[in-house]
Amino acid sequence: MTGKDIIKITLNLVIVYLVGGLILAGIYAKTSPIIFKNNENAKKQALKSLMPEADDIRKVGDWTIHEKQAEYYVAKKGDNVIGYVVQSFGKGYSSYINTLIAVDKNFKVLKISILSHAETPGLGDEIMTDTFQTQFKGKDFNHLKVLKTDTTEYIQAISGATISSRAVTEDAVKNGVDQLVKTFNSGNPTTEATKTEGGSAHGTN
Asked: Taking a C-beta distance cutoff of 8 angstroms, is the pair 102, 84 a contact?
């Protein structure tokens, strides 16, 4: 192979990479606004499903968790505040779990909605089930703790997915509720519940 052949091959490869990069950039430019709009629509639908009785759910602020931008909202019916919603993230086994949490005026959880995650199929993705999520109803800050044993007072871990269970409960939801209390109640919830059973947030998915 001559020097000219090497230069020709190199130039051809450069052209291929440049053309490929331009094509990918064009696809991204066209699809990213669509993806953003779809995500925003999904969030609006989730907000409404969390507080169906509210006729106005309005964003009132931003906060940061795990270096991710999140939002919080006030839910009203007429002129009356009936609760709050906060977006939060939990550090799971293989992803950051994007979560919305609705609470009443006493900061007890009404419902949660997981917007996105990339947890292990068949294990960590059980956080999407009603069986797991309905456990949060009525829980206050001090009861947002994961147990591996049967419990109705706290949150029962998903078998084989302790990390994902704690990421939602003790990271996303608990920190989200804490943020709402600090913002709207001018105080802090008790921190005693942060002492989780077993002491460590590590486990297996």
From this structure: yes
Torsion of CA 49, 141, 187, 167, to 10 degrees: -80
| Same structural domain, 46 and 59 | no
Q: Are 73 and 57 in contact (CB under 8 A)?
A: yes
pLDDT digits (tens, 9 = 90+) for 2-60: 777 778 778 878 888 887 777 777 776 767 566 556 666 777 788 989 999 999 999 99
Encoded tokens for 10: 């190199």
Tens-digit pLDDT profile for residues 100-124:
999 999 999 999 999 999 999 999 9
- The tally of domains found in the chain comes to 2
Distance CA 113, CA 120 (A): 18
90 shares its domain with 119: yes
Can you give the pTM of this predicted structure?
0.73
Distance from C-alpha of 99 to C-alpha of 102, rounded to nearest angstrom: 10
CA dist 47 and 87 (Å) reads 10
Q: Is residue 205 part of a domain?
A: no
- Residue 135 to residues 19, 94, 152, Cα–Cα distance (Å): 52, 23, 7
Other Cβ atoms closer than 10 A to 142: 14
